[in-house]
Amino acid sequence: MVLFFCGISAIAQIDGVERDYFSDAIAKNYAIAAARYAEKAHFYTRDIHQDYQRNRTYLVKSRHNADTARFYVKKALLMANQAIEHADTNKKALGLLYTTKNYLNEANANLMAIYKTTRYDDTHYYGEQAMYANGYAVVDAYHASLLLGDNLLDTNKRDLIVEDLLDIPLPENATRLEADEATFTGLINLYEERIVVLEQEAAALEKDMGSNTASDAADLMKEQVARLEEEKALLEEKLLQANEQLKTISELLSQVLLKDVDMDKVKPSRETQFETNKRGAVNDNNSIPFAEELPGGLIYRVQIGYYPASKKVKFPGLHPVSKVKVSRGYIRYFTGYFKTYAEATKAKTYIRQNIVKDAFVVSYFERKKISSSEAMRIEHALQIGTGE
Fold first, then answer.
1. pTM (2 decimals)?
2. Contact 32, 21 (CB under 8 A)
3. What are the angstrom distances between the C-alpha of 100 and each of 25, 31, 148, 202, 211?
């Protein structure tokens, strides 16, 4: 069966992944769909990796997760093939799509291996390899999508883009922005996960070097640590770039989604936690606490900084403020807890005008970072369910 993104097909109406993210950009749409299916596969392989236990229940659950992951891997492969077919002569995008397929095939092979073993350690190993392969497939498919078709982040048009966007009909405009926002949100999540793994691997090797007296083995470990640090530095640079892109997209998206909302009438809900003139709230490097676990459900926060750990910061008057360690080199700073996108955006506007010029809204559902457009759909569904 061949699926096309020309208009809304029957399958597109029941599957939120396969749809027209961008008009007149078929290859781009397929690449985004490939990335999103690979992201779903990554979620299930991550469960195989994280839920490791030495019992039969783990084996049974891992095989169920492998089944589901393989379903999404096959869907991602189908979308990648369609993207390649429509990508014309864009050599860089084609190269990324072919590596996407390679990673997906690698993930599939490891998932197949799970069926053939009854060993706990082997199941965990194959799940881990499939998790990484799916993660890299997501990254490459998203990168390919940014090179294909229409791109809102054309640097030659950036000064005019807000006015241009506000003239585009809302459904088309929001869909286009949503695709780019989901792209960079997904990339940031994967980069951060991989940086943590690299730091753990490097720390383990450094510990082994301390107890290994054989010079050849020690030299090999030093080389491995150097490679890990090199990959980590590259990912941190890519993460910094992705954050900058996400700031731009988030600001544009908020203007589009809230175009018809009278922000003067937006009031904080009962659950909102946010103050702008908290007495004694210095909020410098020493006084800002590390963030506690987020509450469940839908939560919005405002990101007020993403800086090297060594950078001195101060956000006077804001409350509550907390920080999250992204890696040994970078810290992310947040303020507020909000229940609606509109009130979080209103707080963001105040912060941009008075404290930090590039603050933006970050959305979470069940403690997982999601795109703001996805959060808005959940918020709307919750309001309908509660009759608000």
1. 0.67
2. yes
3. 19, 10, 15, 26, 39
**CA dist 247 → 217, 240, 303, 368, 372 (Å):** 45, 11, 10, 19, 12
In the chain, the amino acid numbered 234 is: L
15: number of CA atoms within 13 Å, CB side? 16
Say how many residues make up the chain.
388
Give the list of residues 6+ apart from residue 262 with CB closer than 8 angstroms, or none.
none
CB 356 within 8 A of CB 304: yes
Tokens of 337: 């807890």
- C-alpha distances (whole Å) from 259 to each of 35, 80, 181, 338 are 29, 35, 18, 20
Q: In the block, which residue shows the tokens 């093939």?
A: 81
Beta bridge partners of 331: 307, 325
pLDDT, one tens digit per residue, over 333-388 is 999 999 999 999 999 999 999 999 989 999 999 888 888 888 888 998 887 555 55
Q: CA-CA distance, 114 to 130, in Å (whole number)?
A: 10
Residue in the structure block whose two tokens are 């350690």: 121
**DSSP class per residue in 285-330:** TTTPPBPPPPPSSEEEEEEEEEEETTS--B-TT-BSEEEEE-SSSE
- For the chain, report the end-to-end CA distance as a whole number of angstroms: 42
Q: How many CB atoms lie within 10 A of CB 255?
A: 15
Task: Give the HSE-up count for residue 141: Cα atoms under 13 Å, Cβ half-sphere.
Answer: 36
Q: Tell me the residue type at 69.
A: A
Classified as helix, coil or strand, 319 is: strand
